[in-house]
């Protein structure tokens, strides 16, 4: 009784609040009707819809979707109102009518965000709305609340700092936001890059301003210190970034791009970036290649020298791959790339350390695509010495680079004697070069357990080389050694239906297939065959099918 009474009181209170809000809307709707912006029917519809949404917002278990629908409804209504005001040429609209709906949308957003404080996309949507309606005060409060509840969201910090820098023109506030953000997200490369961008662009603006003032003969204009104008603060930011994040192909381009987009001379800053980074990460091939790319636009010989230094400093295959990829990209500027690649490889091929064999295959694809195959087989020789049991390396060399496939296949089989893929490649090659030896080898390996994946190929080989009769005998022998896969039974069934004359043999194989692989598709094929070739057995097969499949499978089958 008590709980029911409390619930009734809460419902009464909620109804009173909703009624109060609806009454506040009435003057606005009445004025819109008087001005001809809304008809009486539309005004009643607006009141009814808003009442429904107000109740949904205040129920005990409210849903985020209800808030969002209310916001979308108000936005559409505001758009309709503005378009009709322009269409009708109404000028005497009160401020209450002009701004009340905007205030209501702010209110709905804020009420929703009080409940869903950690919903970052919702905060971003509200921030964008504040910018759209030029509500600077609400925008500032939104950033404060959003960052208070989501300090780990880098995107929000960057948006807040950019708003201070680009809209409010307050560099100190933007810098303060970045410093605060880095306390929570010190390992964010994106945050460090944007902070670096802020300091660099600030100096660029000051230098442009100084140039304009000097051109106007205003020497008394106060100027920043020379150290600051030489990007001292930006250099400090970059140095601190290096101690906090790992510099790689994802982080460094952001810093380089900032300097490249400068409209003033940034060579000194770019030189500082590379020198500082290479001191801390001397084994980063990406850094060396990036430096060569930057230098190449001014001095191609120096770029080649940098690549040479990189390969001497880092004698690894990963470094060689990055250098070769760079050469391929800038073939037109570097000249005879193939000769350069061969020169590089001759210098340290015997010392080359290959950590990941997949990088060798990736490089091989790129070099073959660009007709740079010289010395590629030697790279694979080195790779196979260091990774003799890597199947992908063997198959790539055999398919793309081998001058003597038979010899390479024998070497691959010696390294990987039990690998089905290598074995199949070897036997396929042997069937063309030495059929007698191929047959002996097939009969030798098919009994082994590792040859189970090759049963289908073995039956195909026997069928093509010796005929259906021997394929039947081979199938009977295989059943003694292995669990015959579905594809192998299906293959022999196909051979029987193409060349065979015995319906009994086909039914025997279908029985094996449906017993071991109880699938609706297999039963359907069995029934189709019986209907065409042996209709006297169809009732028996149908009875077995009904006992083997589920009711759903049978319904789908028929």
How many alpha or pi helices? 31
Mean pLDDT: 82
Helix content: over 70%
Which percent range describes the beta-strand content? under 5%
> Which structural class matches the secondary elements?
mainly alpha
**Biggest sheet descriptor:** none
Count of beta strands: 0
Residue stretches low in confidence (pLDDT < 50, at least 5 long) are 1-10
**Euclidean distance between termini CA atoms:** 60 Å
The coarse silhouette is flat
As a whole number of angstroms, the C-alpha radius of gyration is 38 Å
What are the SSEs and their pairings?
Blueprint lengths: L1 H33 L5 H19 L5 H25 L6 H21 L4 H13 L3 H14 L4 H14 L3 H14 L4 H27 L10 H4 L2 H13 L7 H9 L6 H14 L4 H12 L3 H14 L3 H13 L1 H4 L2 H12 L8 H13 L6 H11 L4 H10 L4 H11 L4 H14 L1 H11 L9 H12 L1 H14 L4 H14 L3 H14 L3 H14 L4 H11 L2 H7 L1
Helix pairs in contact: 1-2, 2-3, 3-4, 5-6, 7-8, 7-9, 8-9, 9-11, 9-12, 11-13, 12-13, 14-15, 14-16, 16-18, 16-19, 19-20, 21-22, 22-23, 23-24, 25-26, 25-27, 26-27, 27-28, 28-29, 29-30
Properties at a glance:
558 residues; mainly alpha; 31 helices; flat; disordered N terminus
Question: What's a concise summary of this model?
Answer:
With 558 residues, the chain is an all-alpha fold. Helix content is 77%, strand content 0%.
Describe the overall structure:
It is a single chain. This protein has 558 residues and is mainly alpha-helical. It has 31 helices and no strands. Helix 14 packs antiparallel against helix 15 and helix 23 runs antiparallel to helix 24. The protein is flat. The two termini are 60 Å apart. The N terminus is likely disordered.
């Amino acid at each position: 009784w008590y709980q029911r009474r409390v619930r009734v009181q809460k419902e009464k209170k909620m109804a009173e609040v909703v009624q109060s809000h609806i009454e506040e809307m009435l003057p606005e709707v009445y004025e819109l009707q008087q001005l001809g912006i809304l008809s009486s029917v539309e005004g009643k519809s607006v009141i009814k819809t808003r009442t429904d949404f107000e109740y949904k917002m205040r129920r005990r278990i409210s849903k985020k979707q209800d808030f969002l629908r209310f916001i979308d409804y108000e936005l559409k209504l505001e758009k309709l109102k503005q378009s009709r005001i322009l269409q009708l040429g109404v000028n005497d609209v009160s401020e209450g009518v002009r701004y009340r709906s905007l205030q209501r949308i702010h209110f709905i957003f804020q009420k929703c965000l009080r409940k869903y404080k950690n919903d970052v996309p919702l905060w971003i949507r509200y921030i964008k709305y504040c910018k759209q309606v030029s509500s600077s005060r609400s925008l500032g409060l939104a950033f404060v609340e959003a960052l208070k509840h989501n300090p780990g969201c880098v995107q929000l910090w960057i948006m807040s700092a950019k708003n201070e820098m680009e809209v409010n023109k307050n560099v100190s506030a933007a810098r303060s936001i970045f410093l605060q953000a880095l306390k929570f997200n010190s390992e964010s490369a994106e945050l460090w890059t944007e902070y670096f961008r802020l300091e660099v662009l600030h100096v660029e603006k000051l230098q442009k301003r100084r140039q304009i003032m000097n051109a106007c003969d205003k020497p008394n204009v106060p100027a920043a210190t020379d150290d600051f104008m030489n990007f001292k603060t930006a250099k400090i930011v970059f140095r601190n970034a290096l101690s906090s994040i790992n510099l790689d192909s994802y982080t460094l381009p952001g810093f380089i791009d900032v300097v490249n987009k400068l409209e003033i001379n940034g060579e000194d800053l770019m030189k500082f970036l590379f020198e500082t980074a290479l001191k801390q990460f001397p084994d980063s091939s990406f850094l060396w290649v990036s430096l060569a790319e930057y230098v190449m636009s001014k001095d191609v010989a120096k770029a080649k020298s940098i690549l040479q230094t990189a390969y001497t400093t880092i004698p690894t295959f990963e470094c060689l791959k990055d250098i070769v990829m760079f050469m391929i990209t800038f073939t037109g500027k570097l000249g005879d790339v193939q000769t350069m690649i061969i020169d590089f490889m001759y210098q340290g091929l015997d010392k080359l350390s290959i950590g990941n064999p997949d990088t060798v295959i990736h490089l091989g694809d790129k070099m073959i695509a660009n007709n740079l195959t010289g010395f590629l087989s030697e790279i694979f020789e080195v790779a196979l010495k260091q990774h003799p049991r890597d199947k992908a390396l063997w198959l790539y060399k055999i398919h793309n680079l081998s001058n003597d496939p038979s010899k390479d296949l024998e070497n691959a089989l010696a390294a990987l004697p039990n690998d089905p893929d290598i074995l199949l490649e070897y036997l396929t090659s042997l069937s063309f070069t030495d059929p007698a030896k191929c047959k002996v080898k097939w009969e030798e390996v098919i009994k082994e357990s590792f040859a189970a994946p090759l049963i289908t190929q073995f039956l195909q080989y026997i069928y093509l080389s010796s005929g259906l009769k021997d394929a039947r005998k081979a199938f009977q022998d295989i059943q003694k050694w292995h669990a015959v896969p579905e594809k192998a039974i299906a293959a022999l069934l196909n051979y029987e239906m193409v060349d065979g004359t015995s319906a009994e043999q086909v039914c025997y194989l279908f029985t094996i297939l449906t017993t071991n692989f109880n699938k609706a598709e297999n039963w359907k094929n069995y029934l189709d065959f019986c209907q065409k070739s042996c209709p006297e057995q169809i009732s028996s097969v149908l009875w077995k099918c009904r006992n083997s499949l589920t009711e759903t499978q049978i319904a789908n089958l028929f």
